[in-house]
Design goal:
This protein is α/β, with parallel strands linked by helices and 235 residues long. The chain has helices at residues 3-8, 22-31, 47-53, 67-80, 100-106, 128-145, 161-166, 176-186, 209-230, and strands at 9-15, 35-41, 57-61, 85-88, 112-118, 157-160, 190-195. It has one domain (3-230): Spore Coat Polysaccharide Biosynthesis Protein SpsA, Chain A.
Amino acid sequence: MNAGVASQACVVIPGYNAAQTIAPLVHQVRRLGLDVVVVNDGSTDQTARLAMEAGATVISHVHNRGKGLALRTGFDFALQSAYATIVTLDGDGQHDPSEIPTLLAALDGAAIGVVVGHRLASPGTMPRMRRLTNQVMSLVVSWLARQSIPDSQCGFRAIRRAVLEGIGLSACRFELETELVLAAARSGWSIASVPVRSIYHAHRSYIHPLLDGIRFIGLIGRLTMAQMFKGRRWK
């Protein structure tokens, strides 16, 4: 990886009870020459200690507040620093840090504001129901964004600093990832996608299909109504 790019990029990892995976993950990212910020979202295990010992900057929430708010905490840290690009990946080890340079390379185009990993092209052991749900959500998000985002729910992303500076985020849980790409599209940015591996372990998922599905629908409804009242169309 180009040393100049590495010095300008920060990897934000939200982590909740991720003690089994967080240290190897941080080590892999650090070997790429990238700074790592782990947002410890009220974990009751050793996530914070292990992440710090592996070389990450750790910011801790006293209580669990949700993945979306953990990401927003990481974004705030990155924006207060000199980072030009923010990479996000999950703390449970389902993303391969060796693919980070591919995401950063795809961010090269001037109009591209966000690069999203595309797991559905090669889903591996992704549960069938999760795959179907992601496909349906991605169709909805692509329609609203007026551009193709084949795996809109993937948390493995590269984001320009200018995108985060120009949008407001309010979601606190998993729906933040949808809010971010739609807000970026509404601001005129292109969203690129690159194929990435999907690595699934036997770890517990904190996604609640019913509650998080309701939050997704609520977010889509709020954003659609906001556009209608403003009299503007999605770009």
